[in-house]
Amino acid sequence: MTVLERFSVDDRVVIVTGASSGLGVAFAKGFVEAGARVVLAARRADKLEETAALIDSLGGTSLTVVADISDPEQAGALMDSAMGEFGQVDVLINNAGIGTAVPAVHETPEQFRSVVNINLNGSYWAAQAAGRVMQPGSSIVNISSILGSTSAGLPQAAYSASKAAIGGLTRDLAQQWGRRKGIRVNAIAPGYFATQMTQEYPDGYPPAIGPRLVLGRTGDPEELAATAIWLASPASSYVTGQTIVVDGGVTIM
């Protein structure tokens, strides 16, 4: 295998959770452009169909599954659907997530629990279900955030806590499944990428973090998709248990 061939994800079956909007769409599009087949999973059927239409326009192969991965049974059913359609699951992009920007003294227990339930618990249930069907050489990529290790001027206790926990989850699954199952588990910690979630931020943000953007700009979702493709490919075959920061330099300031 040449170095260039190591970057190939041709014909791999890639599950993307949270594929109905934002970065999930970018991940799905990127993997299809790189030659993979994708399983699109999210809670919103109408938005999933929009993503599926995009994949069709690119000549890609996809399967749409409506699923709430915070429910272990639905996470398992997602894997069953992928296996039934394609006979394999090679990559899981654990992208589904929500966020709040609520001051800590005002955040309700329901708000906090809902964020943790989807961002952390959902990532675990999806990974657990994937780990049961994946073969050696497979890859799980959890989507964390730089807010798991730094702050950005917004009150996001639930979101930050859930994303910090993703790092620990990633390391533990990597050590459990590396030698025994041959499954690599890594995470990506994005910085500021314009998405539907960030559109809900208050006025003046992200310019407030402008001085911390070492590269002088916010991120392009295709740059994040490219990182995920690398982590899913044999090019990163000796990388596991790591959180790869993709933030334009924010966390070095």
From TrEMBL:
Domain of life (superkingdom): Bacteria
Alphabetized GO MF terms: oxidoreductase activity, acting on the CH-OH group of donors, NAD or NADP as acceptor
Cited SUPFAM superfamilies: NAD(P)-binding Rossmann-fold domains
Ketoreductase domain segment(s): 12-191
Record carries keyword Heme: no
Protein keywords: Oxidoreductase
Pfam families, A to Z: adh_short_C2
Signal peptide interval: none
Record-stated family: Belongs to the short-chain dehydrogenases/reductases (SDR) family.
PANTHER family: 3-OXOACYL-[ACYL-CARRIER-PROTEIN] REDUCTASE, CHLOROPLASTIC (PTHR42760:SF40), SHORT-CHAIN DEHYDROGENASES/REDUCTASES FAMILY MEMBER (PTHR42760)
Annotated protein name in UniProt: Short-chain dehydrogenase
